[in-house]
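REQUEST FORM: STRUCTURE PREDICTION
Request ID: SP-0412
Submitted by: Lab K.M.
Chain count: 1
Length (residues): 340
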Amino acid sequence: MKIGIVRGAFGNPYELQNWEPLAGKHEVAVFVRKNNGFRTAARFDARRAGMTVERLWSPYDYLNRYSRAVFNRLFVDSHYLFGLEKKLKGFDTAVCAETYYAYTQQCLNAKKKGYVKKVISTVWENIPFNNESIRGRKEFKQRAIKEVDYFIAVTQKAREALIAEGCDPQKITVIPMGVDLERFRPSRGFRTHAGMTKVLMVGRLVKEKGILELAKKIQGVEVKIIGGGIPYEKMPEVYREADIFVHPVIGSKTWQEQFGMVLVEAMASGLPIITTDCGSIPEVVGDAGIISKDIIKDLKLLVANKNLRLKMGKIARARAEKYFDRNLIAAQYDQLIAKI
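STATUS: Completed
RESULT:
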């Protein structure tokens, strides 16, 4: 079977690892923009996953943050991939993302022309009717809701947002993101670091991620903040060097944490987690972390209690093995594609 994963500017190894187990069984191609920001994606695909990478020019390649906003106001969305429809000719399934991206509309155009048989969309958005202030986005979304053959919602909250916007519940399956549990794993069972407690945060360096709160100093704690620049293949070791993982997300009116891949990576690494009640976080973390109203207070609690850290770390690893094994996720993808 030929599967095309259409991601534009968002082709990244965090998500693609979930498709890797299918690369030996099916012919899998990833379609990204020419200057895809996640440069490790191409290396990841070619070297490890057995996928091919198609790089197509996009308006996104020529625009900065401010000009993209202007472009979107004039032309709805800059995530357009030149030549995508023809590139999808002969594919059985196109797996796009969200309902409001231009390349999702292109996948539907390709289906209408008979180039691709089915279109599946992976949806992360968990705020109903979000993005509709931009002219044309509502129409994009409504067309996708009607014409996409099936939706993969990464959380129950994303599923509920789709239903609120008018999507048929029978067309939605919740399948979360997973990680490679062989790579993301505890160090020698579980960590026994001596000296200062090592606290890790991984996320974009923006206000919504709560970085200012974590910047407060706590005695006896070494805080490491990873905002980018480290290749993904080196991240498992970064987690193994830590004692506690903190994800102090604040969110905003137009963005709530949609999933939190870093939470799953931390769980798989056997780390105790402190995070917040933002978006889909409680659904992802479950009982494997502290949903905190006072990050500093709860951080001090874990710093002072090594046994509690070890107990929470084991619970976190067990949850990752039960729900977030990328092999289990890939099997669900395979079953879904075969069904439709």
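NOTES: The chain has two domains: 2-178+325-339, 197-323.
Reviewed by: T.R.
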